[in-house]
Amino acid sequence: MSSCPRLRHHLTGMALGATNRLNRQDAETSDKLLASLWRARRRGSCVEALPRAGRSCARLAGVAFALALAVSPGVAFAQAEALLDEGKSLMKKGKVEEACPKLEESYRLSPRSATLLALAMCHEKQGKVATAWSEYIDLGAAARKEGNKRLEADAKARGAKLELSLPRLTLSVPRAAAVEGLEVMLDGAPVDGALWGQARPIDPGQHKVSASAPGRKPWEKSVTIKRGERKTVAVPALAKDASAAAQPAPAAEAPPPAAPVAAAPEKGSAGSGDGAAGAGKGAAGPGKGAAGPGKGAAGPGKGAAGPGKGAAGPGKGAVAAAPGQGAAGPETDASPAASPAAEEQEPSSGSSPRHTGSFVIEAGVAGGALIGLMDSGSFGDLSAYSYSYNIPEGELIAPCDDEVCHASFDPAIGPFVGGEAFIGVALSEDLHLGARVLGGYRFGGGYLVVGGPSASMRLGRLWLGLSGLVGPVGQQAKVTGIKGEIPSEVEHLNYGRSEVAVNAREGSLPESALVETLAFGGSVDVSLVLADLPSAGWTSGALLLSVSPTVMKGLDGWVFAAPASLGYRFY
Fold first, then answer.
1. Where in the chain is the domain with CATH 1.25.40.10?
2. Rounded Cα gap, residues 332 and 315, in angstroms
3. Taking the complete model, does pTM exceed 0.70, yes or no?
4. Considering only CA atoms, which of 386, 387, 385, 384 is closest in space to residue 494?
5. pLDDT tens profile 369-392
6. Is 475 helix (H, G, I), strand (E, B) or coil?
7. Which residue intervals of the chain bear CATH 2.60.40.1120?
8. pLDDT tens-digit profile of 54-109?
9. CATH tag, 75-164
10. Which CATH class name applies to 358-570?
C-alpha cells in the first residue's frame, strides 16, 4: 500500500493532462475520476478511494489506462478537425505554403476523404501537380470503396485535367553505367532499377539526381523541369575511385600465419630477387605489399617469408581473408584475380533506355474529308465515241481512245473513313523516323491509299511531324463531257484550239464515273498525347489524337484530305 500515494499522484497528472483535450462528455467522466482520486488523497488510502471498484491500486491503474484508450481517438479527431479548418482558412487567404503542412498533419491524424481532397487542392495551388495528381488518384480509390460516386467522379476529373500538364522525368541508365551495386537516387530517395528508362511524373522545379556504386566515384546532377515538360537525365558510367581501391579492406582478425618456408632462390626472402624489407620494390609504399593490396609481405616487394607471392596482405596474399593470390609456398594462389572486364556486370533487363534505338509502331483509325479537284481523266472504254476536226482536205471524224480523248469531271467532296499506321525507329526519346501509311474509303465512291517517309518530333504534349506521300487516289464524280485532242499541226485550221468536244449522243454519257490518278504530295501531322502509358512491357506507349492536313498533286488535278485519327504508338 506504500506505493498508492505515488501511483495516485502519477495518475492524477495523466488525467489532468487528458482533461484539457476532451470534449464535454469526456470531461465529465474525467471529473468523476479526479474527484475520486482527490478523496483518496485526503483519506490517504486506495481502499477508501475506490470502495466499489475494488481494493487494489492495480484496479485504479486499469481504470485510468482504459480511460486513456477510450478518449485518445477523440483527441486525435479533434486535433485533425482543428487543423483542417485552419488549413482551409489559410487556403482561402492564399497562404498555401502555410496551409498545406497543416492539412498534411490533419490527414496523418485522421485520414479521411474530405481532408485528402483539401490536401490535393492545396498541393495543386502550390504547383506540386504530380503530388496532387497522385492524391486525386488515391482519393478516387477511397471514394470508390466508400461508395461515394460523386466524389469519385470529381477526383477522376481533377486528376485527368492535371495529367495533361504533368512534367515527366526519365532516368536513363546505359549498359556501360549499370555496374554491380549501382544505386540511383532522385532527391535523396532510391529509384528502383525496374523504373530506369521510364518517364515518371514529377513536381515542377529543381531536382537532384545522384548515383553511386562500390569502388566508384559518386555522381550527381541538378535538373530543372517545367510544367508539362519532358526531360531525360542519362547516368554516366561512374569513374573508378583509385583512392578507394588503394585503401586496405577492413582487417578481420587473421589466424596465426603458417610456419615460414625456407628461403628459396626465387623471389627471395632476405636477400634475393625483389627483396623483403629493403632492396626490393620499396618498403612501405603503396606497392604490392603485405598490409595493403600488394603481393608482398612486410613491404611492397614480392618476396617475404618464402618464395610465394604473398603472405598476409589483403591483396594477393595467403592467410588474410582477401581474394589475393599465393599461400605460403612456391605455388600461386588457388583463386585467380578477377580481370578488369569482370568488374563490369551485366545490367538488369530494365536498365537500358527503352526509347532510343527501339522500334516504334503506331496504328489507329482515321476519318475526315476527301476533296478531289481532278477535272479530267478516263472512266473506261472511250472507243464508242468519236469527234471531228478540220484538216487541209476537209473535216476528219476521228475515233476516241484513252490516248486522244478524256472525260471532264466536276469537283467531288465527301467523307472518308479508314486507318493510319506508322513504323520506324526512335533515334531519341523525342525523335522518331520511319514511314507512314494512310488509307480509306470515300463515301459515295472513291478511295485514298498513300504512304511515304515520315519523321516526328515531340514538343511537350504534342508530336509534330512531316510525311512525304505518294499513291493512287480515286473519286466518284459527275461527268460533264468528253474532249478529243487536235493534232498540233492542224490547230491553225481549228481556230487555234488544242481540243474539241466529242460528239456524244444524248444520254450516252454516264451521270458519274470513278476517276483515278496517281498523286504526289505530303502532310503535316499534329498529334496530342491523350495518355502516356510507359511500362517495361510491350504495351509501353501513348494514346494519340492526330490531325494530318494533306495536299497532293495528281496527274490530272489536285487532291486535298483532312483526316483525324485516334491511334496508339507503341515504343
1. 75-164
2. 13
3. no
4. 387
5. 999 888 778 777 777 888 888 988
6. strand
7. 168-234
8. 445 555 555 555 555 454 566 778 888 888 888 888 988 888 899 999 899 999 88
9. 1.25.40.10
10. mainly beta
